[in-house]
Amino acid sequence: MFKKVLIANRGEIAVRIMRTCREMGIGTVAVYSEVDARALHVLEADEAVALGESEPLKSYLHIEKIINAAKRTGAEAVHPGYGFLAENPNFAEACEDSGLTFVGPPGRVIRDLGNKTTARRIMTSAGVPVIPGMMEATQDLERLVHEAKIIGYPVLVKAVAGGGGKGMRVVFEDQAMREACVSAMSEAEKAFGDGSLYLEKHLESPRHVEFQILADRNGSVVHLFERECSIQRRHQKIIEETPSPVMTASLREAMGKAAVSAAKAAGYVNAGTVEFLLDRAGSFYFLEVNTRLQVEHPVTEMTTGLDLVREQLHIAAGDSLRFRQDELLQRGHAIECRVYAEDPEQSFFPSPGKVLLHCEPAGPGIRNDCGIYEGFRVPVEYDPIIGKVIAYGETREASRRRMIRALENYAILGIRTTIPYLIDILKSHEFTAGDLCTDFIERHFQGWRQSMEDADRAKIAYIIHDLASSVKASTTQKSLRRPTPWETLGDWRL
Amino acid sequence: MKYHLKVGEEASEIEVLSPENPQSLRVTMEDKGSDVSFQRVSENCLWVVADGKATRAFVAQVDDGAHVFLAGRCYLVQDADRLSLRGPRHGVHEETPREVTPPMPSVVVRILVSEGAVVKKGQGLVVVTAMKMETTLVAPYDGKVKKINAAINQKVAPGDILVEIEEEVPAND
């Protein structure tokens, strides 16, 4: 096993990876940009190397600087986390070329699968069903408009190098197509350095169901069951769970088999996720393979009892899979809620700033993977995810109620977060019934406003706080003098 | 003493009796009185019992008011007496901004109009990005673009007027 691993990421995922490393007796090296000098992942690591300016291209996306940091500190392997360089084949290859082990699949596999149209061709030849649409990408606007007409609206515009909803747009009519493509191209160019787009037929209210896979270097592949991630906003998952409320034993077997075939066809190594769309009729279509640890991996960990980062490190170190498919079991139910530094009442605009209070949820079955702390300034430069709350329960209903309880106790002040919004989704009749689809938010939570139910109590709390702070007295001349202890203490009894 | 507080669009006047008592208050809100007892647990944490219901509340002062967290909900409470001390810039949120300014520090990615262009209310003018999300700033009213004070890749902050628009005065028939 490695003695030291560099984590080429920031935020909650870097912290999460370091925790497993520490448990395995592996030394950790953090990298950080100027604005992250006091970020949690820096404080958690055994060593930390400054990368420079905060702009991602000059820090977390700067391959050379990261490799130099690894060499200088004597790290043997690099874990990329998710986002940033995690799905950059050049980075994986640059690591291997420098004698560092990249904790993930080989560069060639990332390149094939990261190119969404190549991936679609690989899957088609392996007999895995794909969504009707283009098999190659382009930056030619006229061509995209033309193809959209052939496929038929609504179409989904997707970045060929995409992921996480960046560079993705649903287009319902011809007139909106150009602006959607221009804007998607610009977003994709910035996020992935490649603005090429392709089109897929937009399916009517499907579910997003994905399978976690693990593959070793000897070609053995297992799946760790499904995750349903249908609750999405702007194509970003916000609530994930496992098992899927609609999964049956036979569907799980069919989809699991397809996922394993997909991994084998691509020559996959390490942990990955095969994503599918599941339509109302129970047919499933290959969406893409995410060649990295997923944001939502903890729900799989909670229900299988495994630590996916540990398995990733074992596979990267050359070990064979430590279990066979028939030895894997899933037990209970887990839900994950992503917490973003966004203001749900100001159309989810990012809400960076200083965290003035951070009171984390706790209790049975609760896990909080989080990258902030009280006093930390959430920077404007990076993705607004600040953490994930995971709730485990013996049933879906137990885990749903547990999640609501946990979020109601998760106080974050100073920045706005999506917590109130998540609670209302979890409490909704449709979520409770497990009636999910990828347009769930558009259907049921468009124009959501926070309930004013507790507004009067909030005002009272404000007044108490204000009186106690006694600032008001001095600023507005309203007389208020705080009693001294000599006045409030009462009689002494000796 | 009286407080003038606003949460969202709801403004109310609250009369506080016995503000000097360190453990309880009587407040009157829209002619309805309630007795509130409380304990200050820490600088930001309160334990409040109002109308027989106990809650833990968390409060912190922020730039444009105070964040109050109660059972999973977070409210921005704005105190008129305080905001008025800080000048109009920090006033209560307006329904639709009258100025083309980013709501938070961001970077300009695209400029969709040029000087002299005639724009309609709601038309996209400038696209800015912050935390990897793009947002389009729109025209607050019909008019003519007088001046553009933004360039691509420029860092901009709230208060910077990115596009100046001469408002079209509706003709009187």
Task: Give the structure's gist in a few sentences.
Chain A is of the alpha+beta class and 494 residues long. Chain A has 4 domains: 4-103, Rossmann fold (3-Layer(aba) Sandwich); 132-201, ATP-grasp fold, A domain (Dna Ligase, domain 1, 2-Layer Sandwich); 207-444, D-amino Acid Aminotransferase, Chain A, domain 1 (2-Layer Sandwich), CATH 3.30.470; 459-494, no CATH class. Chain A has helices at residues 11-23, 40-44, 63-73, 89-97, 107-114, 116-125, 141-151, 174-192, 249-266, 297-304, 308-316, 396-408, 419-427, 429-432, 440-444, 455-469, 471-476, 485-488; strands at residues 4-7, 27-33, 47-52, 77-79, 101-102, 155-159, 169-171, 197-201, 207-215, 221-233, 236-242, 270-278, 284-290, 333-340, 342-343, 349-350, 353-354, 357-359, 366-370, 377-378, 385-393, 411-413.
Structural notes for this entry:
The complex is a heterodimer of chains A (494) and B (173). Chain A has 494 residues and is α+β, with helices and mostly antiparallel strands. Chain A folds into 4 domains: 4-103, 3-Layer(aba) Sandwich (Rossmann fold), CATH 3.40.50.20; 132-201, ATP-grasp fold, A domain (Dna Ligase, domain 1), CATH 3.30.1490.20; 207-444, D-amino Acid Aminotransferase, Chain A, domain 1; 459-494, no CATH class. Chain A is 36% helix and 23% strand. Chain A contains 18 helices and 22 strands. Chain A has helices spanning 11-23, 40-44, 63-73, 89-97, 107-114, 116-125, 141-151, 174-192, 249-266, 297-304, 308-316, 396-408, 419-427, 429-432, 440-444, 455-469, 471-476, 485-488; strands at residues 4-7, 27-33, 47-52, 77-79, 101-102, 155-159, 169-171, 197-201, 207-215, 221-233, 236-242, 270-278, 284-290, 333-340, 342-343, 349-350, 353-354, 357-359, 366-370, 377-378, 385-393, 411-413. In chain A, the strands form 6 sheets. Chain A has an 8-stranded antiparallel sheet, sandwiched between helices. In chain A, strands 3-2-1-4-5 form a 5-stranded parallel sheet. In chain A, a hairpin with a 5-residue loop joins strand 15 and strand 16. In chain A, helix 4 (89-97) packs antiparallel against helix 5. By secondary structure, chain B is an all-beta fold. Chain B has 2 domains: 2-90, Glycoprotein, Type 4 Pilin (2-Layer Sandwich); 106-167, RNA polymerase II/Efflux pump adaptor protein, barrel-sandwich hybrid domain (OB fold (Dihydrolipoamide Acetyltransferase, E2P)), CATH 2.40.50.100. An 8-stranded antiparallel barrel of chain B has the order 1-2-3-4-5-6-7-8. In chain B, a hairpin with a 6-residue loop joins strand 2 (10-17) and strand 3 (24-29). Residues 86-95 of chain B have low confidence and may be disordered. The chains are: A alpha+beta (494), B mainly beta (173). At the A-B interface, helix 8, strand 16, helix 12, strand 22 and helix 13 of A face strand 1, strand 2, strand 3, strand 4 and strand 5 of B.
